[in-house]
Input
Amino acid sequence: MNKQIDKILKVLKLCVVVIWVAAVLCVLAGENGAFLNWTVEPNGQEEFVLNSVAVCLTLFGTPLSLKFFNLCTAHTLRRMNNDEALHAYLVHGCVRSVMLMLIVMSDVVIYYITANNVTGGLCALIVLTISLVCWPKREQIDTYLEKVNADEEG
Output
């Protein structure tokens, strides 16, 4: 069981690192002119729409990904044994990381498309900061397994 938990911790930590690596790769691509052809006119309607998309993605997508993880890991406990629960925890943790990564990448691309308007960049930084909350800890998994075992007994 301990080996399986350690493996899950490594995978989930890797998922958080991948979010940061993807953000850095997007920034490097933007700095090297990868998004230059998509640049929109400053202070125009397109810039307003893209900045609104960045804000909405960050404002709604980030809490949604965190809540999704919480709901999926909390409400399916009654039907699972420890192995199934650990697998579900891993899958939902990876899904949460993918959702956060897509939001960060979208925000960074919007930052470069809108000619370095700060809205997309700030939104990306907010999501990157929130991704640090997702750093897995052994205590979280132990608490999760205690809930699984309590639901099996109750």
Q: What stands out?
A: DSSP finds five helices and no strands in the chain.
